[in-house]
Structure prediction request, 401 residues.
Amino acid sequence: MELQASIKKLYEDNRRTHGDFQYTVPSPSSYPYQWLWDSCFHAIVLSHFDNKSAEKELLSVVAKQFDSGLLPHIIYWQPQNKLQFDWGVADTSAITQPPIIAYAVWRVFKASGNTSFLESMYSALKKYYDYLLLRKDTSTGLLGIINPDESGEDNSPRFDSSLNLPSKHSVSENNAKRFELFAKNKTCNFDIQHCMKNHFWVQDVPFNSHMVENLNCMHDIALVLGKSEQAAHYEQIQQELKQAMKEHMLHDGIFLSLDSCNNKIDVMTWAVFTPLLANLYTEEEAVSLIKNFLHNNKMFGGNAPVPTTALFEPGFTPTESVTEPAELHPNWRGPIWMATNWMICRGLKKYGFTHEATILAQKSKQLILNGGLREYYSPYTGKGMGAKQFTWSGLVLDMID
Ligand code: GLC
Prediction:
């Protein structure tokens, strides 16, 4: 079947409805709920062939917004006996995921020009981005996350030291630490200030880069809706956040996340590419990033790009364990994910590196053609691994455009 047709079919198969709500499950067998950043990816993919469903996906994902403004990272529309924790609230989780929803809304709007869709999303977006600003670290002005799962990259080695884990450890050990942290987060009712001071607090490069890009989208959305004062406000806080990132995260030409003591976390992951999305690198730094990191065979280069963790890192784990059960994945410790390739591709395009972006898009397409519609792929062989019938592969449609 032609690639677009297989992706369309996958999205139809993974579509679920609940009353008036419609959403897409990332993988029917492994991830049977609605996830926040997944739905943003879904909406962007759907905007290529079914914009009405893209709108519905985003309207559903804001339906369970907390009074505080938080958008929960999971909505259990149809509870099942799988991956369902008690977060102390009804039918959702109580943490969030990377704040990419304004970008998704903007893309869906651009595909249709439907301003009433923008109108219907605006107050939820405003509430969410206002809430996120409460996560500013008091000394750096950068946004923090209270659990690795808020980064979307649950077991990334960027979080090992903050979880008190060595760089080599088993998936079960990683899960145990994260679940212990969920329990602590729950004890203080997910209070940001309390978690910041007592439990886990990482000022993460991708989270902040997404915030900058999405504040820009909020600026554009506010302008379309005639809210010029709010547009100016988003422009200003976006500039402030950019400044804080440059001041506190930049180290030898790349951006590094900070731990709770504001020390730079010197672990090389694909996160170094995300500031491209926020126009944070100078032209010269971007050129060096491509040459010395993206195309460097000891870092992120090689046969099948782009590994989520650099090949030289001690925590790099490219394949599934033979001793642990199949659902215990290496996830973010090496394998290639389509969403991260898509983000890097967008960053490259923003800087005008069209040739590099095209090559990455073609290699990503090849991964899917050879490895199937899977959760992630081996950076050595391109073999598809993890969850099956996984929706993120659809993002390739947005890369090969
Ligand atoms: C995994 C991923 C997370 C994603 C979820 C649903 O937990 O790490 O980013 O949102 O699956 O696909």
Summary: Strands lie at 15-18, 21-24, 34-35, 74-75, 250-251, 254-255, 376-377, 384-385. The first strand starts at residue 15 and ends at 18. The first helix runs from residue 3 to 13. The two ends are 19 Å apart (CA to CA).
